[in-house]
Amino acid sequence: MPSVIVLDTSLSMCRPVQMPDVTESVQFRNLAVHGLTCLLDFMNINCKLEFAALMSFSSFRETLVPFTRDFESIKTALTQPEYNERSRISKALEGVQSLVMEEWGAGVPCQVVMVTDGVIGPEIESLKSDIENHYTVTEKGIEDSTFPLPFPFPCKLHIVCIANSTDPYLQASLPVYQKLIDISGGGGQVFIPEGPVSFKSVQAMFLKLSELYYKPFHGVLHCGTLTSNVALSPPPEPFCKARDFELVKAEMSNDIVICGFISIGDVSSPPSHSRHLILPLQSSKGKYMLLVSPSLLPTSVGGRGGLVVRSRPRDRRVAGSKPDSTEDPPCMGPVAR
């Protein structure tokens, strides 16, 4: 899932931060760089296949680093932006929409991480007015094309505030931030440091963001008596669908079972909730790994083969024992190509 990091580069980010244990002069922008470096280090270890971009916003917006897997280039660019007067969040959101649509289109889910000091500035009244106007227009069943939210693509919007929870500027901005996330409609949340602002509290805040929204999915792939530790990229999202009289929720099991092989020609382009790469992990026991190669798939029909897998509840049988003959027959699942 691609990510867009949006960094506030208004002059308020250059304010000094009073920290009792630090003798050197520290500014809010230094804390922002420290926190984002922690996030990028986490992604570099756990999300190597993901793309990320860096954008700055103040009175104007600028794409500092386009989508890349080179997280080191983003860390380098964090220390180079120019800081200008006030911030304009609406312009930043318009820039995010333009950047994502140009690179990925409307079908790829994304995450947006906006890092700010909680000071919206003079724009706050006009932003409140735009939000109220958006609600008024949409309640009439009319699409609001003047407001950048919701994005035309699925998106989680996170707003990371580097400010003390008692800061009056932050208290005035929090309702606006929450409404932006609500209008976005794809989830996300506002993050605030626990306790006084410091390098430690900011690092803990970004670590919380990483654990909640960038944690990799690890599971076990089963094929007969063979197993392999695997990761899915991107991590699967919980499924939630509202029906007439119930709300259906489902989560991916850690056990993924290959129930058989089928020709791609027989299934064509099957409907799917999401698609993921299955990547092998180093076995902790140092024994056998199950690697599925395209050359091993059947080619008797259509010249190409498909791998039929399904997710199942955790198997509680003793390893190496024979399967129970009364076990339910395997269900057809998504086709990995």
TrEMBL record:
<dbReference type="Pfam" id="PF19435">
    <property type="entry name" value="IntS14_b-barrel"/>
</dbReference>
<dbReference type="GO" id="GO:0032039">
    <property type="term" value="C:integrator complex"/>
</dbReference>
<dbReference type="InterPro" id="IPR039841">
    <property type="entry name" value="INTS14"/>
</dbReference>
<feature type="domain" description="Integrator complex subunit 14 beta-barrel">
    <location>
        <begin position="214"/>
        <end position="287"/>
    </location>
</feature>
<feature type="domain" description="VWFA">
    <location>
        <begin position="4"/>
        <end position="118"/>
    </location>
</feature>
<dbReference type="InterPro" id="IPR002035">
    <property type="entry name" value="VWF_A"/>
</dbReference>
<dbReference type="GO" id="GO:0034472">
    <property type="term" value="P:snRNA 3'-end processing"/>
</dbReference>
<dbReference type="InterPro" id="IPR045814">
    <property type="entry name" value="IntS14_b-barrel"/>
</dbReference>
<comment type="similarity">
    <text>Belongs to the Integrator subunit 14 family.</text>
</comment>
<dbReference type="Pfam" id="PF13519">
    <property type="entry name" value="VWA_2"/>
</dbReference>
<protein>
    <recommendedName>
        <fullName>Integrator complex subunit 14</fullName>
    </recommendedName>
</protein>
<feature type="region of interest" description="Disordered">
    <location>
        <begin position="303"/>
        <end position="337"/>
    </location>
</feature>
<dbReference type="InterPro" id="IPR036465">
    <property type="entry name" value="vWFA_dom_sf"/>
</dbReference>
